[in-house]
Design goal:
The protein is an alpha/beta fold. The protein is built from 18 helices and 14 strands. The strands form 4 sheets. It has a 5-stranded parallel β-sheet, sandwiched between helices. Strands 7-8-11-6-12 form a 5-stranded parallel β-sheet. A two-stranded antiparallel sheet has the order 9-10. The longest helix has 33 residues. GO terms for molecular function: ATP binding; sequence-specific DNA binding.
Length: 463
């Protein structure tokens, strides 16, 4: 392959020139040369080298010492040692130090070509395995984040960079853009990743309860405080705490959070003194905090304390080229979750997904596909399964099985409607069950029962 590179290292200049010509005639590759070990190491430092053919006896740095330095610099490089002294001891020492093989001078051309060919093959396999291992590792640490667009690649690079520090990170973006996924990825990739991420959905609790949940309380701190309670910041000690939708925090909790950011200390309710806590803070919002600051609803000093490093999650409209990849990801995800055969999208449906508007972003796309799995019996989703409201058809005429009893089809349609209603409702409230209950006119407990009955994953509907 033309991208392959072989480096020949020997202090015999005539031999080096002869090998350069011979190898170039036999292999479609780049051939580099060096007259000593130090020159070879400089070349490897600035070039992608696949195979090194090096003499064992050279002034200043012999071939075995060069071999050791090469393996330290780039373990993937394949090294073949040349020697005029083909003793078993030299061969054993070379192999122990990581040489691929040994060839004796004067060189047998056929054996040389065989070794170089095998060396190049080995190098391709080693580098491909390393690439796949890195890709698998990236997928594991980035969780369900998917994308190949330039915008998403930049997001992934920034996540990996942010994970290398303990800086507070402010994640901004519209509802449904994957802010919580980004927070989990930053945590998983960080040195704190072996410990559990503590997630706080700020709008889910009234301010008085949220304060005690965040900072904890001591027995007797208030009525019904029968025992000590460990707060979420203490639970996140040595780990990371993610404050989702921080724009909904009340001013009292904002003040206490500011103290945590400034002093790295918390004071549980009812406690006599503060104590230090080592928790990295990640925060997210879909709100315009600058406007809330102008309205006196958000502390400016807290905003600047949070805004040490910012990650902006793009809307789905900005990464339309990733829609086919995301659609495939969600199709596979739902199939595995529900233990059903995977469905495929007809080309015209994929075109429809590419062209339509996505006010709910990636979460809206996921919910749409989940809806299709609930109501489409076929393994292929076509335009017949789209409604006028650009959602899954509850029971389209083309998909209706008239051999089934009326009662069955009716229950199927009700189930499809309920699932779609719940996913849209909870999607609109960012997974906040209390807010969803208020919008729906139901009691919170009643809504929770329905959510549980239909096995709706509320966590996936959060930003």
């Amino acid at each position: 392959m033309a991208d392959d590179t072989i480096l020949v290292v020997d202090d015999e200049i005539d031999l080096v020139r002869g090998l350069e010509r011979t190898i170039a005639m036999e292999f479609d590759c780049r051939v580099l040369t060096a007259e000593n070990g130090r020159q070879a190491l400089d070349i490897i430092a600035t070039n992608s080298v696949d195979v090194v053919l090096a003499d064992v006896l050279m002034p200043e740095m012999d071939g075995l010492t060069l071999l050791t330095h090469i393996k330290q610099q780039d373990p993937a490089v394949t090294v073949v040692i040349m020697t005029a002294y083909g003793t078993i001891e030299k061969a054993v020492e070379a192999i122990k130090k990581g040489a691929y093989d040994l060839i004796q001078k004067p060189l047998d051309e056929e054996r040389l070509f065989h070794l170089l060919r095998k060396g190049l093959e080995r190098n391709r396999l080693v580098r491909e395995n390393a690439r796949l291992t890195e890709e698998i590792g990236r997928k594991k640490t980035l969780g369900s984040m998917v994308g190949r667009s330039r915008t998403m690649r930049a997001v992934f690079e920034k996540i990996q960079m942010l994970a290398q520090s303990d800086a507070t990170v402010f994640i901004r973006g519209e509802t449904g853009t994957g802010k919580e996924l980004a927070a989990r990825a930053i945590h998983n990739l960080s040195r704190r990743g072996r410990r559990q991420l503590v997630t706080v959905n700020c709008p889910a609790l009234p301010e008085t309860i949220l304060e005690s949940e965040l900072f904890g309380y001591r027995k007797g701190a208030f009525t019904h405080a029968a025992d000590h309670h460990t707060g979420m910041f203490d639970q996140a000690n040595g780990s990371t705490i993610f404050l989702d939708e921080i724009g909904d925090l009340g001013l009292t909790v904002q003040t206490k959070l500011l103290r945590v950011l400034q002093d790295k200390e918390i004071r549980p309710l009812g406690a006599d003194r503060s104590h230090r806590v080592d928790a990295r803070i990640l925060a997210a919002t879909n709100q315009d905090l600058e406007e809330k600051i102008r309205q006196g609803l958000f502390r400016e000093d807290l905003f600047y304390r949070l805004n040490v490093a910012t990650l902006v999650m793009p809307s789905l409209d900005r990464i339309r080229e990733d829609i086919p990849l995301l659609a495939d990801h969600f199709l596979d995800l739902v199939a595995r979750e529900q233990e059903k055969p995977p469905k495929i999208l007809a080309p015209e449906v994929l075109n429809y997904l590419m062209e339509r508007k996505w006010p709910g972003n990636t979460r809206q796309l996921e919910n749409l596909i989940r809806g299709w799995y609930a109501v489409v019996p076929e393994d292929r989703i076509t335009t017949h399964h789209l409604t006028a409201e650009t959602g899954p058809a509850g029971c389209p005429a083309e998909a209706m099985d008239l051999d089934r009893p009326y009662q069955f089809l009716k229950e199927q349609a009700i189930e499809a409607f309920t699932r779609e209603y719940l996913t849209r409702l909870l999607g609109r409230t960012g997974g906040n069950v209390s807010a969803a209950a208020q919008l729906s006119g139901m009691k919170r407990q009643s809504l929770q029962k329905i959510v549980k009955r239909y096995d709706i994953d509320v966590r996936r509907l959060r930003s």
